[in-house]
């Protein structure tokens, strides 16, 4: 070690002890000389007293001079010895400081050498990492180009598909208008023509109890999907105490003037939309959060807190089946247009697709976040879902994978609805108290609706399109019901009847000229507007 090396290098140096001993010897010698001098002085005094001759006086004087010289010499030797001792101590300290400086310099050189080696290693590692980074960048650039190309191709395909859907929808609208005009002109004399349409299109309807979904019927073609002009509702025509607890859902039948309400009092009620009278009550075991209607099979689905989906016969009110598979509350349920499929969304972060007739689960999708709402496209191949993490996601049911995802809201999404006109737009509502009209291809907002009236009440609050897609209706926490223009985002009508938060709204499909809006609130009330 350094201390051992230092002792070996300085083993022959004079030690401080030796210096002190030498100084003590000189001091003792000086005292002896002083004692001798005192004795000589005394002897001289005696001699001075005895000898009085001049020769003797001269001798005494010489002896005194000798004595003074001896004293001076002794003092000089004593001072010189002290200086030598001090110089030796200073020399030792200097040597010790020099040794420490040499040791520190040696350690510094060693540290510098170690750091130089470390720097060399780091420079080598940096070179390797830089090469790897360049490789990753090149790979990322290549993949980005591939993704950009694939996204462009996908956008092109989606645009073409949506345009074709819109074109088909337009043609269907024209056909409906032509048929409606023919029906109005022919009146009661169209029995033969109606029979011809029935034979050409689908024949008789499939029996709902057989479990098979029927095809498009003559009545479906002869009855228009919506009227040519939608009238904005302005007046409350009736209000009823529908349930004993909050009403969470309301939905119209697409074939009859009937609507359905689901409540936390564990029941679903069927209402005559013309008279406001209750036709039937469907009993469950847990609070009902969402309701869907399948007029093709004559079924009503209700789901909520018991993690299952209960199915009733629309005409008899009897329970038909119960679908199980979710592990938590179900917030959303919807049927496909042809009635063959049913989709559900849950707080267990899954979306499930079921066979409507058999109740078999045909697909389960991990949704990454609580699903508050969902809707199926008109062809039944695409789902749009709204989530607690503020995201709107689009799913391809052929692959079960997400083909689009954005977070256009700053609060959890409570409603997602495809436009009735070809599905090229999506209506979304969220807890950030905004409603957006999104482009279905890019999920970018075309219209934003936000004003002092709009206050979304709960996590499953529903807004709804008008049949022509030009308006929407939504309820607010302050009890108001707002009708907005989907093109401009302007409030066209504020409907007031509720004194409690409005949880959900529905707009009648507009068949055969029937136009109506329904709203339900937290106090169990149902209001109808025309």
From TrEMBL:
Residues 242-527 form the WDHD1 first WD40 domain. PROSITE patterns: WD_REPEATS_1, WD_REPEATS_2, WD_REPEATS_REGION. SUPFAM superfamilies: WD40 repeat-like. Residues 23-50 form a coiled coil. It comes from the Eukaryota. SMART domains: WD40 (SM00320). It holds the Pfam family WD40_WDHD1_1st. This is WDHD1 first WD40 domain-containing protein. It comes from Rhizochromulina marina. The lineage of its organism: Eukaryota, Sar, Stramenopiles, Ochrophyta, Dictyochophyceae.
């Amino acid at each position: 070690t350094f201390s051992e090396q230092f002792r070996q290098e300085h083993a022959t140096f004079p030690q401080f002890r030796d210096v002190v001993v030498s100084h003590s010897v000189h001091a003792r010698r000086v005292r002896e000389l002083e004692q001798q001098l005192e004795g000589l002085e005394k002897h001289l005094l005696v001699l001075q007293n005895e000898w009085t001759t001049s020769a003797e006086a001269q001798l005494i004087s010489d002896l005194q001079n000798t004595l003074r010289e001896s004293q001076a010499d002794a003092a000089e030797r004593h001072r010189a010895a002290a200086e030598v001792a001090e110089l030796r101590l200073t020399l030792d300290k200097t040597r010790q400081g020099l040794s420490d400086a040499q040791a520190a310099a040696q350690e510094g050189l060693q540290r510098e050498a170690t750091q130089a080696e470390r720097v060399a290693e780091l420079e080598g590692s940096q070179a390797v990492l830089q090469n790897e980074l360049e490789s990753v960048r090149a790979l990322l650039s290549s993949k980005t180009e591939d993704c950009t190309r694939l996204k462009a191709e996908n956008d092109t395909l989606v645009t073409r598909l949506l345009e074709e859907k819109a074109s088909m929808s337009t043609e269907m609208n024209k056909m409906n208008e032509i048929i409606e005009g023919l029906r109005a002109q022919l009146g009661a004399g169209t029995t033969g023509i109606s029979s011809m349409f029935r034979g050409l299109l689908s024949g008789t309807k499939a029996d709902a109890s057989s479990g098979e979904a029927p095809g498009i019927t003559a009545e479906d073609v002869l009855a228009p999907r919506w009227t040519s002009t939608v009238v904005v509702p302005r007046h409350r025509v009736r209000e009823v105490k529908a349930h004993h607890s909050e009403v969470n859902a309301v939905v119209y039948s697409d074939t009859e003037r009937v609507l359905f309400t689901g409540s936390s009092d564990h029941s679903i009620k069927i209402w005559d939309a013309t008279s406001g009278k209750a036709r039937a009550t469907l009993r469950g075991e847990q609070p009902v959060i969402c309701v869907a209607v399948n007029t093709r099979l004559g079924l009503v689905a209700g789901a909520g807190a018991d993690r299952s989906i209960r199915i009733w016969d629309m005409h008899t009110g009897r329970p038909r089946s119960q679908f199980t598979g979710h592990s938590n509350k179900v917030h959303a349920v919807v049927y496909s247009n042809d009635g063959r499929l049913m989709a559900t969304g849950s707080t267990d972060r899954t979306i499930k697709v079921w066979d409507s007739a058999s109740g078999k689960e045909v697909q389960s999708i991990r949704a990454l976040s609580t699903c508050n709402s969902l809707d199926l496209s008109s062809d039944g191949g695409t789902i749009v879902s709204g989530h607690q993490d503020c995201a709107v996601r689009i799913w391809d049911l052929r692959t079960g994978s997400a083909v689009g995802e954005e977070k256009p809201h700053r609060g959890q999404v409570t409603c997602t609805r495809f436009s009735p006109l070809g599905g090229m737009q999506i209506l979304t509502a969220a807890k950030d108290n905004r409603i957006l009209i999104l482009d279905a291809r890019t999920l970018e907002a075309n219209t934003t609706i936000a004003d002092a009236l709009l206050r979304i009440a709960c996590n499953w609050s529903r807004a709804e399109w008008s049949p022509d897609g030009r308006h929407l209706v939504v309820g607010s926490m302050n009890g108001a019901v707002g009708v907005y223009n989907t093109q401009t985002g302007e409030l066209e009508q504020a409907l007031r009847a509720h004194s409690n938060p409005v949880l959900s709204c529905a707009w009648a499909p507009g068949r055969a000229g029937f136009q109506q809006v329904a709203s339900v609130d937290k106090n169990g009330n149902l209001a109808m507007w025309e």
